[in-house]
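subagent[fold] <- orchestrator: predict structure for attached chain, return tokens only, no commentary.
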Amino acid sequence: MSTVDPGEHVAQRDRPSGEDAPSVNGASGLNGHAVNGSGAATNGKPHSKEDKRTVAELAELRRLVAREAYEAERARGDHLGGSRGWTIAISSLLLVALLLRVYGLKHGLPFAYNVDEQAHFLPRAIGMFGHGGNPDYFVNPPAFTYLVHLVLAVAYGGREGVYQAYIDNPIGVWTLARATAALTGVLGVFLLWRAGIRLFGRPAAFLAAGVLTFCFLAVFYSHQALNDVPTLAPIALALWGAAGLLIGDSRRDWLLAGLGLGLACSTKYTGGIVALPIIAVAVHRARADGLEPVVAGLLWAGLASGLAFLIGNPYALLTPGDFIDDLIHQQTASSDEIGKLGLTQTNGWIYYLQVSGWGIGWIPSILAVVGAVYLFLRDRMRFWFLVPAPVLYILFMGSNVRFFGRWLLPVAPMIALLAGIGALAVATWVLRSPVKARTPKVLAVLFVILCGQGIVYSVHSSRTLSQKDTREVARDWMFENVPAGVKIVLEPIVPSAWIIPSGEGEVGRFGGGQWVKFPVGKSRIDPKTGSFTKDPKGVLVSVEDFQRVLRPDLIERYQNGGFCLVVVGSTQRGRAEAEPNEVPDALRYYKELEKNSQAIFRVTPYGDEKKKVGFSFDWSFTYFPLDYERPGPEITVYRLNNGENPNGKCGNGTGPLSSLVSKKDLADVKTGGGVQQDPAATGSDTAVDDVKTGDSPTELQ
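subagent[fold] -> orchestrator:
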């Protein structure tokens, strides 16, 4: 009696065309020899015991592929009106994905408040119009930078057009760069849909595409000109090509897989995780077809991957020393335990599991585990294809000492696919029928269950970003109420250009800042050690280290210098409050500030002003909690008084703010059109240059 699964005959007779179901031919035979159902070679030659075991394994693979072809054909049926219905469904989903990613795209502009967005991709894309194609920077791979550079060149006609556009309408230039990231995010959803069809059929593919469409992290970071979301498209492309190799041996699929891998690595280094599915499929093809065709396929994939990587990062080959140095710098930065005050998570593995829950969705994450178990029990090929990548990725990323939610995005497509098949597996178990589990009504219910959390938080995110940023609200208030020339202390919560007049109502004071800013960027306190340095010029202080050099006696220095307005942001103060034992001097500084001042302005990002979300390097910058109504930190402007300091120049804290402007500063404004800042006034807002070398912070209190 033949041992072939009955479904194979149905699949052979009515096999669907295209990618809607697998092809049986690609998995049959060993080195060109056909295999029958009983495991005997058709050429009549007897096999050795070892050969028979190998042929039996191949026969099992053949039966598995045939059975899945049969199940895919049955599941396909006329659900959603056949191919036309599915086209309408995925087109609608892509339209929703696009709307979510472009609504609120102009948030914060003309200021890019995300430090990475402000410093890396768009500025370097513009810079390359002046100094050529070498980005001179490889901490982040430059493929997205090159893409933005190309988009700008097409949109504005080259160097002069881009420069003029950035001068005349920087908001438009920033919006175009962000739109580029958003569109690549939509492309990633489409490519995941195609990969899902090849892996599991249209129902699971649609559910997976829905998870990625409403993935909170993907939606939020589509609103910024960063490389995180653009990496999803080549990752999905690699999965699409590699998935085709599970059911066939097309050179095109080897090339697609390699192309996706190379582009993913040249967009974000961690995108290289998609190499694991390609390795898994190579092992599968070696078992099905022998080693020789697999080596040939890997050579094609390697060639495509290498060319794609060099297209996206050519100077990795042209300037290898710079490339390697920046890679080392990147790894060193991710292992810096001191640099991220306020990062209270200590277990990276638990952290990334939690990020999957709130950043992708708790139900999709749980069902992804169900899907992994289901594949382990029913489909080992696809288990090894999908499951090792996210598991090993989380193990590796969680072993670092610095971690952020958006770093999980490279494995979001795999988690989405596992969630889709996990949802169908549960529905099949409940309904006792794979066909019933794939009917339109059941799929609609599964879609809502899988995507419900993502829908709520992604819509909330885009709506929040469409509102006026608290930093913009505070800036408007200050330009309206704080006279030019007033001395201020501004925490490092905004770019340095924030104090430079730029609006229509601010014309006439170009050439300098609106106010005199407390000298920033240097300190005699070394934030790494907490001790005073011997260098009389002090050391540079980064935004991340600002809280480490604060101390209560700075308040007296402000008073003596006439710096009577202090602008405080929760994204700075919150770092100290999150780790009070790390920076006790900073907490005493804020206590001394409140003791010697009154708050004259406050703006919060929350719908209820009494609400307060604790500091988080994820939620404080992505505004995930539903308490947020607008983007930005909570900002408070304090007006200092002299307190118990008889030498202070801030008075009793009353009277018009114009009384705080010195005659010299008023003269500078009238003659120069603005207030020239101290050269050190960039970066973090602190400077300690009036203490003796060798003193310690405690000796000054």
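orchestrator: received. Logging for downstream: Residues 470-700 form one domain. The CA atoms of residues 436 and 686 lie 66 Å apart.
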